[in-house]
Design a protein that fits this description.
Rossmann fold, six-stranded mixed β-sheet
Length: 329
């Protein structure tokens, strides 16, 4: 594309960012991204130089970009990849993640749900008759926590970006889900047996992260997870994108002003952070009951024969998935 000149140096720009009312060349785009991550880290006390950091990586642009940015900023960070068993999508995601780590000589821990826990996300969705994202999210959270604690890491970093966080906020606001709103903060402190979790990409968009990867030569999984087709989260993103096109900067104002102004007010309503929790009788993880959700899921779905991805998609999603599969052959 033929953009205007970079606002900083006057050289040819490679990207226009309407929310900043500016265009940037490759070097100054990278500078912008670094500064936004540094600001997030500083403003919310996310990381310290001597922290042992574990980055949750999926093979997508955001998780690989934040791993790269943290290393670029001088932090020491290892990666954790979880093979979710989502057909070819998981195979390709794993390949991109391993290639990124191998090319840079980085430490990458891997967990395969099917190999280590005898189930995968499509099978869990089929057996429980719940949406795939439910079993996926819960499994990832449990395994990220466990890996961090077992490995002696101080903090877990995830690649949630501004678009992700704004979409979640939008959905929670539409329902006025006060407890979820109270928990939506870019930092979850270590508490009750859970490790600290942070989201340093909170000030950067998907488009900016894609541009970072292109400039830095990072190959990543481009396709969306087939399990996410029809997910309300994507609809919320599109609704916000529509507003953003008409009024650049609205999305960042919506989310960042919430974090600055409303999150402190709602913090006292976060029931999950209050009180003591029990220890899971099976794995020892913190839980409100006798057995944690992960162990209950594992007990219910472990050992079932693998279910093909298309078997757990709705009609519209199945059609799109099979069409994509055919196009890739």
């Amino acid at each position: 594309m033929n953009f205007s000149k970079c606002r900083v140096c006057g050289e040819r720009a490679i990207i226009d960012l309407p929310r900043h009312n500016a265009n940037f060349c490759a070097d100054h785009l990278l500078q912008l991204c670094r500064r936004q991550v540094e600001k997030a880290i500083k403003d919310h006390e996310m990381l310290s130089p001597d922290d042992r950091i574990l980055v949750a990586v999926s093979g997508g642009k955001d998780s690989l970009a934040i791993w790269d940015i943290l290393l670029d900023l001088g932090y020491s960070a290892d990666g954790l990849y979880i093979g979710l068993g989502i057909g070819e999508y998981s195979d390709v995601s794993g390949e991109y993640t391993r290639a990124f780590a191998d090319e840079r000589g980085l430490t990458l821990h891997t967990i395969d749900l099917r190999d280590e826990y005898d189930y995968d996300v499509p099978t869990a969705a089929k057996v429980t008759r719940r949406v795939p994202c439910s079993a996926c999210g819960m499994s990832k959270r449990h395994l990220f926590d466990k890996a961090a604690l077992d490995g002696g890491y101080d903090v877990v970093v995830t690649g949630h970006n501004l678009d992700d966080e704004a979409a979640v906020l939008f959905g929670n606001t539409l329902r006025w889900d006060v407890e979820y709103l109270a928990r939506q903060h870019p930092v979850l402190p270590a508490r009750n047996g859970f490790p600290k979790k942070v989201k340093p990409l909170m000030r950067l968009t998907e488009r900016e992260m894609a541009a970072w990867c292109i400039v830095r030569g990072i190959d990543y999984q481009v396709d969306e997870c087939p399990m996410a087709i029809g997910n309300k989260h994507l609809a919320y993103k599109e609704a916000l994108n529509s507003i953003e096109r008409e009024s650049p900067g609205s999305k960042s104002a919506f989310y960042l002003e919430f974090v600055d102004k409303m999150s402190p007010i709602l913090a006292g309503l976060n029931q999950a952070a209050a009180g003591e929790l029990n220890r899971c009788a099976e794995c020892g993880a913190p839980t409100t009951g006798d057995t944690c959700a992960f162990c209950r899921l594992h007990e219910r779905v472990g050992g079932h024969e693998p279910v093909p991805v298309e078997m757990v998609l709705n009609k519209k999603a199945r059609k799109a998935y099979l069409a994509a599969q055919a196009a890739g052959e």
